[in-house]
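hey can u check if this looks right to u? its 394 residues, i copy pasted from the old doc so theres a chance i mangled smth
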Amino acid sequence: MDDNLTKRIETIRSGVFKYQLGLSKEALALLLQRVVDAQERFRSSPLAPVANELEKEVVVSSVFGTNTIEGGELSEQETEEALSLSPKQVQNIQQKRAVNIRNAYDYIREVSVQKNWQPSLEDVLQIHKLVYDGLESSNEQNHEQCDEQNVPGVLRDNPDGIVTRVGNAEHGGVYKPPQLGTDIKLLLESLIAWQAELADKGIPALIRAPLFHLYFELIHPFWDGNGRVGRVLEAGILYSEGFRYAPFAQANYYLSHIHQYFALFNRSRKAADKKKDFPNNAFVEFFLEGMLETINHLHNRVNRLIHIVLYEASLKRLHDDKGINDRQYAIVNVVLHNGSGMALNHLKKAPWYLALYSKLTDKTKSRDLSKLKELKLIVVDENGHLAPGFVEDF
């Protein structure tokens, strides 16, 4: 790729900072095309009937992913519960962290769809404000001095005697980012301008987004929250180009490959310092592999949700036409919405199930279940677990 787009920035105390594509077009071409093709397949999916459910799932899993990377303690279920709370119901810092990330995602979705949008310094500061709204501390790496220094929406400016270092030996070493506030502001503004220049030159968002993320983290412009802000900005660049769900769900890929994710920042930095060819290739390749996996997962999830919609409609028609009774309809709905599967012996012991048959015989119980299996509305695997009938064909 054209490295004529390299930008060199002279700082006051941090020497020369260089932004470069640093990529091999030949090495990335096939993977890049596979991501583009996957996105086109996903766009052609019948999203409308399941958009609300998919949106809800992606928001919860994305908030969980990016929050957990930076020390968040909520499970995915607890994250979902936190995001359902009204502002007055939020009870603790962990819930507030999750809500704040959701608010930052909401902000970037709103601004990034504006015509000709590119991330601005105002966006960066606003996202940090949203991430840290009402929080007194966080658990990101290297936060020894962060608690008292970190101010929402204010760039880092290290006073004498306080040195910021990021990283660790496990992930490729410790790095000292720029310390002087003037240098940090210059570098951040230059990165924003460089990203816009790449967009003007036709560099695709699938390249610009990870490069912006990479250099943003190397600048490390805030005392705390850089990871969360960087991932939101990465998502915004992609969202502005029509990627609607994967940019946010990408956080789960980073979480599941957390050691590789952290190590690649150092690997790219060290490769650039040693003036190696294509120093950013590994990070961008990692990002593209994540996008491909994420988009394909979302595509499969949409297909499954569509199966559920069609199954529910068919089930309702069958019930309305008296093809199954109220008890059978209730059983199938429980199996359908149980999520992780239900053991047949657990079903038979469930209070609601026992209540259905409190005045009926065991023969009636057996007949009801047999008919559901005969109609293939439910299936029972070799381990005695129940699943909706459509899973056989999925």
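The longest strand covers residues 7-10.
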